[in-house]
Structure formats: C-alpha cells, structure tokens
Design brief:
Elements: H1 3-29, H2 33-58
Length: 60
C-alpha cells in the first residue's frame, strides 16, 4: 500500500469517528422522538454546518 492510500484511509477513519461522535452528542441532548431522528440527520451533516459557520465568521 502506498503512503497516499494509507493517508486517505486514516482521514476516512477520523471523519467517520467525527460523524459517530456528533450523532452520540446530538442523541444525548435530544428530548423526544423527532429530536432523536433529527439528531441522526444533524450528526451526518455536521461538517456542512461547520463550513457554513466558518465562512460566515470569515465574512465570505
């Protein structure tokens, strides 16, 4: 395996752990059934929220 493939595999693992951690976090703060459903959705798309807030902060 070349070094670039190993780096890509490591990046995917970190990304997956981030998604799993976000789902766990949002699940813990959810209160009802639909909030738990929303927690799964939010956990899957949290990078989009992060980029949006970062660009808003930078004024882009």
């Amino acid at each position: 395996m070349s070094d670039s493939n190993a780096a890509a595999a490591g990046t995917g693992t970190v990304y997956a752990l981030g998604i799993f951690g976000a789902i766990v976090y949002y699940w813990q703060v959810a209160d009802g059934f639909w909030e738990h459903v929303g927690a799964i959705f939010q956990g899957l798309v949290w990078p989009a929220f992060l980029v949006y807030e970062l660009l808003a902060y930078l004024g882009a």
